[in-house]
Amino acid sequence: MSSFSLPTINDNPDGGWGPSFSNLPSQFKFKDIPYAPYSKSDKLGRFADWNDISGDNRQTNLGLSSGQGARNAPAGRGRRDGQAAFGSGTASAFAYFHAEDESSFSLVDTKATTARRGGASARGRGSARGGAGFFRGGAARGGRGGANSTRGGGAPRGGRRGWRDWEKSNRTREASVAISPEWSMLEEIEFHRLAKLRLDVDDPEDLESYGRLYAYEKSYDRITTKTEKPLQLVDRIKYNTTTSDDPVMQELASKDTATVYTTDVILSGLMCAPRSVYPWDIVIVREGNKLFFDKRDGGPFDTVTVNENAADPPQDPTPPNPNNPTEKTVPETPSMNSATSLSLEATYINQNFGFQTVTETPPPPAVEFEKPNPFYGPEETEPLASCGYRYRVFDLGITEDEDVKICVRTEVDAYSAGQANPRLGQGLVTIRALNEFDSRATGAGGAPDWRTKLDTQRGAVVATEMKNNSCKLAKWTVQSILAGAELMKIGYISRANPRDNTRHVILSTTSVRPTDFANQLNISLPNGWGIVRTVTDILMKQPEGKYVLVKDPNRPVIRLYAVPLTAFTAEDEEDEGGLDGDEPESA
Asked: 3-state SS string over 208-232?
């Protein structure tokens, strides 16, 4: 019969539960065993799989367990929460290192292997071909290019995204105004901070109205790509005077009508600042408790941008580096599809389209506002364009005790015949134009060919324009809402020949209500008013003087600078020989 003996019981002298660690045998003390950090969420897998040396066991071959491999996986793949696992940054003590030198190792078969169809190499080659096809399909094939632009060229699945795509991030733009060392920066605000602002503003108060309006010619609403009309050069005068040079603004300021004085063009640019990509600047003068927001003559507010929000917007040629003697000293002549050339072309199109689409011969008759055009002098002989100026006051006060008002000069281009009285702000129309230059050129933004898609797939054309020209369309919509216009006419104008930027044709015209179009563009007017109120509060804390609000040319940031009172006066003196502040801008 076998004997039975009780095992040795080690009493814990410390009084705790269980045996004392000092009394344990050496094989239970984990001596000389390294510690590997772990997480409770790690799962145990195979320790070894001798039948499969690929897949997850590659981590085992490198000395990592499957749990550690999951912990060291990139965020978002191995873990759902996207955070690094506990102990993922610790070097593994179980890693295997080769004990022998393998520098003499070499392959026996050095022949190049032929990639099989459908294999990994074929897939990689297809991705590269797809990347190049982004420009072939997106440019030459028109309509399909818009859909393929994000699949072929935009997808980074194992091929390059586009031709010379690595150079696009290195392209830098120049600021709209040269920053002088004498200027002192007061504030720097990022766009993501501007997007969080909000201020609800009530309906405005109408002060005075000036100018003359003609009726919109409704026959342009029936134009199709098969019945296109040429864009004509109409000799008319339309003024784009800045705030400080406006005699009506000066009279209203003398009566203390408001705190801030500006125009709808400048105000819409500030309200839509988070959408802007190209640089711009606003000159602000504080006199007493009044602020005047001005634009510079020939500045960015005098022209219209093209495809500003496209993934690869049009670019101007890079100016030569004077410090590089090997580089050409003569600057490259900008092409017709450069950013500056397209901006001038779009401005020309917008002016002439607005002049052409109104009827000046009654019926219907022209509508005279309360007062005549304030910028048209008695010595002027050229005919005036159809334009009405409405001076309106918006209350930006947060509480009832605050007296923060902004006086805005708004513009309307025509009125809709058969509607109510335009003198009462009913049936007013603003006229704008989108232009197509060359769907195969760089900077087209994957736009389809309008002549083939505008009548059958107008939605695709509109969606592409809303993506590529988000800032421009938003500013047009805000201007129409500020002016109280009921309709906004948008013309689709293309070049008669893609290689000729002097002749254009009208392919179609559409009508939209500004408030409905603002919802489609996801425009938040309270956010725009919040931006205006924030900038106003910052400026009211500063002493009297001149300031410049500058949008950074390459970053989503605006900066406020304090500048001398003599700033920009040299430019004004140079412009006295040509166009000064009160001269008209005739097409």
From this structure: EEEEEECEECHHHHHCCHHHCEECC
